[in-house]
Amino acid sequence: QVQLVESGGGLVQAGDSLRLSCAASGRAFTVYAMAWFRQAPGKEREFVAAIGWNGGHTYYGGDMQGRFTISRDRAKNTEYLQMNTLKPDDTAIYYCAADLYGRSYIDYRISSHYDYWGQGTQVTVSS
After folding, report:
1. Is 68 buried (19+), middle (13-18) or exposed (0-12) by CB count in 10 A?
2. Tell me: the pLDDT tens digits for 104-119?
3. How far lies 72's CA from each of 12, 39, 80, in Å?
4. Separation CA 29–CA 113 (nearest Å)
5. How far apart are CA 24 and CA 28, in angstroms?
6. DSSP 61-84
7. Does 32 score more than 70 pLDDT?
8. What is the model's pLDDT at position 46?
9. pLDDT for position 2
10. Stretch 89-115: mean pLDDT, rounded?
11. In angstroms, rounded to a whole number, what is the distance separating the alpha carbons of residues 78 and 24?
C-alpha cells in the first residue's frame, strides 16, 4: 500500500522557520495533487497548501501565502512545506495528503478529496 510519512516538525520560536517533508513509499503510483493540512487542538482540520502534478500550480490557505511555500521533488517522491515567519497560531499537527483520483480538481481545500494521508508531524511555535 502507499504510505505517506511526514517529518521535520519541532519546537521553534515565533519568527523562526521549519521545513516539513512528506515521503511517499510503496507501490508505484501517480498523483493529481498533493497537499498539506493542519489541525490544532479543539479546531477543525484546516487547509494549508496544495500543489499540482507538475508543480506548476500552488495554492495556499488563510494568511499562509507569502510565508509558506509548497514544493515537490518527484524523483524523491517527496513533497515539502517551507514555513517561514512562524506564528504561535501555526501550532498544530501537520498532515500531508495525496489525491490519486483528481477530486482535488473540484476543490483542493476539501480534505475528503484526498485519498492517502500521513500520520502527521507536530509543529509548536512559542511566543
Report:
1. buried
2. 999 999 999 999 999 9
3. 24, 22, 6
4. 17
5. 10
6. -TT-BTTEEEEEEGGGTEEEEEE-
7. yes
8. 97
9. 82
10. 95
11. 6
State percent of the chain over pLDDT 90: 79
Task: Identify the pLDDT of residue 28.
Answer: 66
CA–CA separation, 126 vs 123, rounded Å? Answer: 10
* Rounded CA separation 7/118 (Å): 10
Q: Which triple of cell numbers denotes residue 17?
A: 522557520
For residue 104, the SS3 value is helix
Q: Pull the grid cell for residue 4.
A: 505517506
Alpha-carbon gap, residue 64 to 41, rounded angstroms: 19
Q: What Rg, from alpha-carbon coordinates, does the chain have?
A: 14
pLDDT for 56: 78
> In whole angstroms, what is the distance from residue 53 CA to residue 33 CA?
5
Estimate to the nearest angstrom the gap between the alpha carbon of 39 and the chain centroid: 11
| CA distance readout (Å), 33 to 18, 89, 113, 120 | 22, 26, 10, 18
